Amino acid sequence: RDKNTSLKVYKSDGSLKISDSLTVDLGKHNVTDFLQLSSDTLHDFLNIYLQRKEKKLVQIIRLNKQFKLVANIESVDIARLNSISAFESEIYYHKKDVYSVKVSNSDTLGKQFYLNKYTLKSELKNFEYELKWQFPFEKKNINSAHIILVTSKFVMLYVNVTGTAKAGQWILKIDPVKGLLIHGTRLSVKGDKNFYSFGSLCQDTVAGMIYILGQKLLETDFSQKDNKINIAGKPFVTVFLAQMDSASEIIKRDEFKVPVLEQKGNKTPSAYLLRQQNLRKTNEGNFLFETDIYKGNNYCYLYCNTLSNTITLSEDKLLMDKGAVTTNTLIEKFYFTTDKADMNGRLCVDSLSEYEKIYYKSMPFVVKAGFKTDATGTSQWLLKKSDSKKGVENFTVLKQDKKIYNLITAGELLKAENPTALIFNLGQYIIFRQPAEDKFEIKLSGW
C-alpha cells in the first residue's frame, strides 16, 4: 500500500491499433481491492465503475468524447448509482436530461401515468438529478406509455388507451421545456378499432416529417378489451407506415401485406410477431429497415429470422419488397432446446393487457448479436446462445458459402470470463473476454 494503484484506459482505431492512452491514479490501493470494472456511456461520457471488494463503494472514472478525464469520484455508495433507473423502468436519456414514465396506483384514483423530466445536477459528481417537471396523463384508461423520441423541440410517446371512446394507439408530443401537451394524434383513423404496434421511426428534419413503422392486427384477430387473440395460421402479416407532418398530424397511412410461408409438416399453425428496427429514409424517398421475426403462441414467441426490407417510392406510390415471413431453420437449430425454462431468444408477456409492450420491450437473452446484408442482398448473422447448465456463451456466425448457409462457431467461452460480442463495423466484430484475473483478451474477426 506504499504505492498507488492506477487505471490505464486505451483508445484504439478501427484495426484495434492503440491511438491514445490515459492513466488515472486510484490512490493507495492494491489491485485486489477492486472487483471487475463495468462501464456505460450515460450523458455522452465514458463512465467507468470500480467496485471495492470488501465495501459497497464504487469509484467512478469519467472521460469525455475528447478522451480527457472529467472526474475521478471516490467512495460512492453503490446504492446511489443511477438512482432513477433503480426505481423507474421506462427511461430515456437525452444529453444532460432524463425522461421517465412513472405509474402510481391508488385505491381511490386508480392507475395514473406521469412523464417526468430530470436534469443532471453536476458532471463532476455521481449522477444525481433535479426534477424539472411532471406531466400527468389523462385518467382515461391509459394502458401503457413508451418514450420513442426526444429532441430539443418535443418528447414523443407511443401511448395505448383502452376501454373508452379514445381507445387506440396514440402519438403524443410534450414540450420538453414546459412539460405541457403539444399535440396528440391517433395512429389509426377515428372509428378504426384495429391495433397498431410501435416498431421503429425516423425523422426527416428538413421536410419536418416523422415516419412510424409497425405491425397491424385486425380487431377480429386481436382485442385487449375482449381479451382475445387469434393471429395463428394467417396467410399474411400486415405492416403499416404512418407519415406525420410538422403540425403533428398523420397525413398518410400505407399498409403492406407480407405473405407467410409455413414450414412443411407443421401440424400446428404458427403465430408471427414482427419487430422492426433501424428505419431510415434515402434521398430517393425509399425506406430501409430490418424486421426481426418471432414465432410462437399468444403469450410467448421465439426469434426465428431477420429480413432486410425496402419500401420503394414508385410513381408516387409506396411498394414493399417481395419478402415473406418465414422461419430460418438454421437459426432454430442453433439454439433449439426442450428446456421450457430456457430464455434464449424468447419474448413473453404475462397477459394480453400487456401485449403492446412485446413489440418494444428488451429481451433477457438476445440471440441475434449482429446482422448485415451485403450488396448482393445476402444476409449474415452473428448469433449468441447462453447455456446456464454448461456455464458457457456460444458465438456463431451464420453465413453463406457457395450459395449454402452454414453455422460456423466463432467461440464457446466460459460465462465466468464475461464474454461480450460487439459489431465493430460492417466487416468486423469483436469478442471480449477475461480468461484470467490479470489478462483481458480482445479478438477481432471478419465476417
Structural write-up:
- With 447 residues, this protein is mostly beta strands.
- It contains 2 helices and 33 strands.
- The chain is globular, with a radius of gyration of 24 Å.
Total DSSP E strands: 33
- The fraction of residues in strands falls at over 45%
Binned, the helix content reads under 10%
Distance from N terminus to C terminus (CA atoms, Å) equals 46 Å
Low-confidence stretches: none
The biggest sheet amounts to: 5 strands, antiparallel
Structural class label? mainly beta
Mean pLDDT: 92
List key phrases describing it:
mainly beta; 5-stranded antiparallel β-sheet; 33 strands; globular
Short description:
Helix content is 3%, strand content 55%. The protein has 447 residues and is an all-beta fold.
